Amino acid sequence: MNLRRDHVAGGSFVLAGVLVLAVSSDLPFGTMASPGAGMLPMLLVGIMLAFGLVLFLRAGESPPLMSIAWDDLAHAIRVTAVTIAGIALYEGLGFVVTMALVLFTLTFIVERKHVAIAAALSVGVTIFAYMLFGMLLKSPLPRGILGF
Amino acid sequence: MESIFANLLLGFEVALRPDVLLYAFLGCLVGTLVGMLPGIGPLAGISILLPVTFGLDATKAIVMLAGIYYGSQYGGSTTSILMRIPGEAASVMTCIDGHAMARKGRAGAALAIAAVGSFIAGTFGVIMLTLVAPPLAAFALRFGPPEYAALLVLGLVFLAYMSSTSLVRTLLMACTGMLLGCIGIDVMTGHFRYSFDIKELGDGIGIVPVAVGLFGLGEILSTPSKTVTDKVASPRLAELLPNREEWRQSAMPIARGSVLGFLVGIVPGSAHIIASFLSYAVEKRVSKTPEEFGKGAVAGVAGPESANNSASTGAFVPMLALGLPTGPVTAVLMAALLIHGVSPGPNLVTEYPQVFWGFIASMYVGNMMLLALNLPLVGLFVKVLQIPYAYLYPLIIMFCIIGVYEVNHSIVDVWIMLIMGVFGYILRKFDFDPAPLVLGLVIAPTFELSLRQSLVMSSGNWTIFFSRPIAAALFAICGLLLVLSAISYISRKDWREKLAEVEAGEK
After folding, report:
1. Other Cβ atoms closer than 10 A to A32
2. Helices (H), A1-148
3. How far apart are CA B507 and CA B495, in angstroms?
4. Which residues from chain A sit within 8 angstroms of residue B456, using beta carbons?
5. Does the complex come out with an ipTM higher than 0.90?
6. pTM
7. Closest approach of A29 to chain B, Cα-based (Å)
8. pLDDT (tens digit, 9 = 90+) per residue, A107-127?
9. Of the candidates A76, A11, A139, which has an alpha carbon nearest to the alpha carbon of residue B425?
10. Domain count, chain A
11. Residue where a domain stops, chosen among A67, A87, A113
C-alpha cells in the first residue's frame, strides 16, 4: 500500500479514540434523564472514531507520506530538549538561574552565536524579566534552592 | 431618544472629570499591558487591582476595572502580530494573518488596523449598548441551557463549514479540543476525568498553556533560524501605517466584525471569544481572495480584532441591564459594584444613573485613549521584529514559560504548553489547523453543562432541543450547513477542496 499522509493522520485519530475509550471505562455514562460524567467524552470519542475512519478511507487523495518535509526536525528536537531541561529545573534552581541557562544554551550552543554576546544577552534579559515580573508586577517567581 | 441623549450628557459630565479620566487612563494602560503579556489576562489584572478600588467611589472603580478589560483586547493583538503568541485567548485568530503580515514587512499596518478596528468596533459596541441594552437584554434572557447548547454547536459547525480545510479535519480538531476540555473534575458529579492522579489536572487544562503552546512554541519548533533570512527593514513613518488599499480591504471586515461580535457578546455565557473565530470564518468565506488567508490577509486581522472588541462591550449588556455576569471577568466587575453598594440589574439605570451613564460615557473616552496609546507606539513595537530571529525566539520561549507559569503558578501548565507545542508542530506537518482545537477547548465546559442541564430539565427527552423555538432555529441552521457540506462532499465539487488544492500548489 502506498502510504499517504492521511493514512497516518486518520489512523492516529482512530487509535487515540480507542485509547480514550479504554481509559474511560470507570466513567458512568448515566441515563438520558441524568447524564453522567462519561456522556460527553463518549459522544466525542464516537465522533472522533467516525471522522478518523473517514479520513483514513479517503487518504488516497492526500499527498504521499514521504512528501512531508522534515528538514526542521533537528532544530525542533534541540529546542524541545533545551525547553524540557529548563522546565525540569525551573522550580528547583529558580527563575534567574534557569532562564539564564536556557537563554545561554539556546543562543550559544544551539544557534552558535558568540559566547560573550550570548552571555550578556542571557544575563541582561533575565535580570530585566526578573525586575518586570518579580518586582514591578509582584509575580511570585520560583526562587529555587539558591534563594533567587 | 432625547432622554438617552440627555442621560449621555450626564454621563459625559461624570466621565470627563479629571479624576475619572485619570482612572480610565490607568485602567486602559494596565489593560493594554496585561493583554500584551501572555498568561496575565484581564481577570488577573482586574483581580489584582480590585483592592485598590476599595477607597474609590463606585464610578471610578468600575471605570478603571472596565478599562482593564477592554484595554486587554487591544493589547492582546500586539504579541499575536509580532511574535505569534496570543496575548490572551481572544487574540488567537489574530496570530494567523497578523503574524503573516508582520513577516511580509507589514507589522505596523497590522498593528494599526488592529488598533483602529478595535476602536471602531468598541465605539460601535458602546453606541449599541447605549441604545439597545434593555430590549436586547430581555431577548438574551430567553436563552436557557438548550439555546446555549444549540448556539455552541452552531458556532462549531459554522466554523467548520467556512473553513478552507475539510469539514472532517476541522471537526476532528474541535473534538480533540473538547476532549481536552473534559479533563478535570466533572462539575455536576464530582468525578475526576482523565487526571491520572495528577492533582493539578483536577481543575482541567487551561486555555493559555494550550494556545501559547500550539501557536507560540509550535511556530518556533517549525522555524529554524537559518530559514529566516528576511531582514525587517527599518520602516519610515509613512510605511508603518496601512496604505489606502489596506484600509479599503479592512473597512467591511471591521463593519461585519463589529456587528457579529456584539451579537455574540450579549448572550450570557456564550463564551464570547468565539466571536473572533466566527468572524475569521465569515471573512474567509466572503472574501474574493480566500487563498490569501493564512498568508497575511488584512481581513483576517481586521475582522477578528473588531469582533473581539465588540463582543467584550456586548458582554456588558446582560451585566448592567440584568445583573447577569457573562463570564468570570464580568462576574468580578459585578462584585466590584456590589462592594461599593451598587446592585447591577434592571434598577441600575434609575437608582444610580450617574454610575450607569458615567460608565458608558467613560467607554467612549476609554476607546479614544486606547487608540491614542496604541497607534503612536506602533513604531516602537515594530522594532521588536528587528531583533535577529536567532536571538528573538529564545526570548519568546522565556516569556512563554513565564506567562504560562504565571496563570496558576503550576509547573504542570508549563509541561502542558510544551506538549501542545510539540503537538502543534506535528499538526502543521499533517496540515491540520489548530484553531478549532482551541475553540473546542473553550466551549467544552459550557457546552457540556448546557447539554446535561437540558436533558435533566426534560427528563431525558431529546426533543427539548427542537421544541424550543430559538434552539430549534439554531439547530435547523446547523442541519442546513451539514447538508450543504455533505452535498458538496459527495459531488466532489467542494469549494474548500479546490481552495485547499490552490493553497497546496502554492506551497
Report:
1. 14
2. 5-23, 39-57, 73-93, 95-104, 115-129
3. 19
4. 33-35
5. yes
6. 0.77
7. 11
8. 999 999 999 999 999 999 999
9. A76
10. 2
11. A67
